[in-house]
Every structure is written in C-alpha cells, then in structure tokens.
Amino acid sequence: MSHMYKNFLTRGHSRALTRHHKLAAAGVAAFGAAAIGLSAVPSDASTTTTTETAAAPTAKVAYSTERIQDVKADVTDQLAGASLKAEQIAAKKQAAAEAAAKRKAAAAAAKAKAEARAEKARQAEEAASRAAERAEVKKAAPKTYGNDLDGWIRESLAIMKKHGIPGSYEGIHRNIMRESSGNPKAINLWDINAQNGIPSKGLLQVIPPTFAAYHVPGTSKNIYDPVANITAACNYAADKYGTMDNVDSAY
Fold it and tell me: CB 3.0–4.6 Å: which of 10, 99, 209, 243 could bond 166 by disulfide?
C-alpha cells in the first residue's frame, strides 16, 4: 500500500505541483540563505549589525590613517633630529674654525711682537755700534783747538796731562798775561838775559837754553810756537817751583 501511495503521489501531482513546487523551493532557498546570514551574526547583534558591519571598513581606514600619520610624525621627528644634528655639527665646525682663526691670529700677533722686539734690539745695537764708532773716530782723530790764547792753553794742558806735567788753566793764563800780555811773538830786549845775548821770548818769556832743556816731545821746536812755549815753560816751572800755579813773578 505504501508503495502505491508513493507512486500515486508522484504520478498524480507531478505535473500539477511543478510550478508551485518551484516557487516554494525558491522561497525555501531564500529563507535558508537568510537564516544562514543571521546565524553568522553574534547573539548580541541587533538590527544595526548590518550598518556596523558596513561601517567596519571605514573604521579600519581611519585606523590605517592614524598609523600613516604616526609614521609621518616619526619621519618628521627623525628629519628634525637629523637637521638639528647637522646644525650642531655645523656649529661645532664653525666654533672650531673660529678657535683656529683666533689661535692663528694670536700666533701672528706674538710673531709680530717678537719681530718688533728683535727689530728694536737690532736698532739699539746698531745705534750703540754707531756711537762706539763715533767715539773711536773721535778718539783717534786729533782734537782741534782754536788758534787763540784759549786754544793754545787748552792744547798745552792736554799735552802736559799726557806727560804728567802739573798746571792749571788759571795759573798758566795769569803768568802769560804778566809776561807777554798774550803776544806769542813777544821778546825782552832790555833785561839781564838780553844783555847776555839770550833774550826771553814767547808767551811765557822763556830763554832759548831753558826752552831747549825743557822742550816736551810732540811739540814744535820753534820757541815762538805758543803751545811749545807754554809746555816747555810749565815743564821748567814744575821742576823748579812744583807747578806754574806757584809762580807769581819773574822766574
């Protein structure tokens, strides 16, 4: 009986239910698909699940944007750090260059100062050398004296000093003025010496034998030469009276 029922259903309704069955099958398939979709949603999901699910990609994009911004910030910080480090390196190089320039300037100043001291010392040495040369020339060159009574007395005193003959300017001048009044050509033709044929001659009225006996080397042998006459007379006075300064009258 059951077999017959099965066949009956199959045969009796196969054509009549075909369209209906197709629609029912489509409805069942749609419902099944919806049920499968709902079964994938968590138990606490609401009707907004679809909206939230649709919004999920937007949240992911926002999160991704923040990560990119963080990366950009990190890159910016790194670039800023690198720039700061470059500036610090440049500043150190500049400071080193300035310090080197200061050291170079200080060395140049010290060198210039040393050269100035050396130049000053050289100039001082040259000046001292020139002064020494002038002194030597002055010492070597014969001293000149005026061709007058003052010059004759001074030249005679210089010669007397070399030979150790005492006498002073005042003593010589005083006796000359008394004996000849400063005339180197003076001659006495009236005293006893003149009567004896040996008249006194020259500034200090020396007789020829006395002049010859007390003549000082380096002076003229002419009795009328003023320097030779003074020097010989002072040499004689030193021998007889100790010095011409002690003579106050005819001697």
Answer: 243
Residue 203's nearest CA partner among 246, 232, 161 is 232
Give every residue of the chain whose pLDDT is below 70, as ranges.
1-75, 138, 140
Q: pLDDT tens-digit profile of 82-134?
A: 888 888 898 889 999 999 999 999 999 999 999 999 999 999 988 998 888 88
Both 114 and 170 in one domain: the answer is: no
Please give the Cα distance from 188 to 193 (Å, whole number). Answer: 8
Cβ neighbours for 227, distance < 8 A, ≥ 6 positions apart: 152, 155, 156, 159, 219, 220
pLDDT of the residue at 86: 86
**Distance between CA atoms of residues 9 and 16, nearest Å:** 11
- The answer on 207 and 157 residing in a single domain is yes
Residue 135, pLDDT score: 77
Given 141, 159, 189, the domain boundary residue is: 141
Domain count within the chain: 2
With H, G, I as helix, E, B as strand and everything else as coil, classify residue 71: helix
CA distances from 144 to 83, 173, 238, 247 (A): 90, 19, 26, 28
Q: Same domain for 171 and 240?
A: yes
Flag whether the pTM goes above 0.70: no
Distance of alpha carbon 228 from alpha carbon 210, whole angstroms: 12
**CA separation for the pair 212, 192 (Å, rounded):** 19
Q: Which residues pair with 162 in a beta bridge?
A: none
